[in-house]
Amino acid sequence: MRKIAALLVALTLLFGTSAPAGAVSTSASSAVLMDVGSGRVLFEEDMHTPRPIASITKLMTALVAVEETSDLSQVITVEPEWLEGVEGSSLYLKAGDQLTLETLLYGLLLQSGNDAAQVIACWIGEDLEGFAQLMNEKARELGMSNTHFTNPSGLNQEEHYSSAYDMALLACACLGNPTVANICATQNISLEGRTFVNHNKLLWLEEDCVGMKTGYTEASGRTLVSAATRGAQTLVCVTLNDPDDWDDHQALLHYGFDTYPVTQLCGEGTTVGQAAVVGSVQPTVSLVAQGDCWYPLAEGEQLDMQLDVYSPLTAPIPAGTQVGTARWILDGEVVAGMPVETGTGVEDDRWKPNALVRWWMGLWGKSWETTVPGMGLI
Predict the structure, then answer these.
(1) Is 89 in the active site?
(2) Which member of 58, 138, 153, 213 is catalytic?
(3) CATH number at residue 296
(4) Whether residue 138 lies in the annotated active site
(5) C-alpha torsion angle, residues 311, 313, 314, 317 (rounded to 10)
(6) Residue 67 host element (H or E)
(7) Annotated catalytic residue: which of 30, 38, 89, 112?
(8) Residues spanned by the domain of 337
(9) pLDDT tens-digit profile of 257-289?
């Protein structure tokens, strides 16, 4: 639909005049800190460079597995060929073992079992190549443009790589999947006679931590994806080749929460503006947000709101009709948006008695039900 000229409204979201609080740094080759709700990058170091990623690969393995197979109670019998070439961290699976997909997923994400990764991949994708294809399809869907997978475990291969930014996108997707998110947040669990303890020390070190995944190979160095939630805000942090990852993640998460707290831009049903109406004695209609919208802002940052309304708004218009979009702008860039709808209905009431008086009163912001001398209640 064609849009009329946008209304630009300055919001009073100014928290001060100073710049964001002191800079942080890491020991990583690549790093990124991202606000999950908005996707805003709060800190980065070389975040788009492709690098080996080791076992944080298993976040994609788990996400694909859960999306491909919703029934985690299915029992999987381990085939001998599925264990060929397995090395590194292991659940010590043997041919003929029978485990549920749920148990394998916990072993994958908590104990980082490479054998669990291969069993899941071969069971779902028929072989490692087939499952890698599913992983790459999901990567493209998520916009992971500097990523390519060749195996489900993260063991080093030349064409197996990702970037810190891409892994943050994957982490956000995993947090949006309740099954994967819940597994990543589990400190320890016993299933089918096996006990798994999460390798992610941040679950014990940081009270706000909600998981995600550790990794290490000689080629990649230490890799880590973490997530933390404080109030209405969730952050994800990714470091690649970081010898001091535990301390770096704690510092970055604290920096993000302290420097870029989320601010509510609108709430569901709150009025964000007015729009002109033709075909009615009511000259305008209030526009309300269809949902909640939050955005992280540092001290001194200010947003403008641009209200784009479809044209023309012609009566009659039922209440709750979507008629446009509210967009918030930071430094000339649209950073958030929310559909808006009519807060009340608008009738085509031009034919009704006293319509001209009603129109005139509307221009002056008077109530429609107003007593006018000599005319009574109109």
Answers:
(1) no
(2) 58
(3) 2.60.410.10
(4) no
(5) 140
(6) helix 58-68
(7) 112
(8) 266-349
(9) 999 999 999 999 999 998 888 877 778 889 999
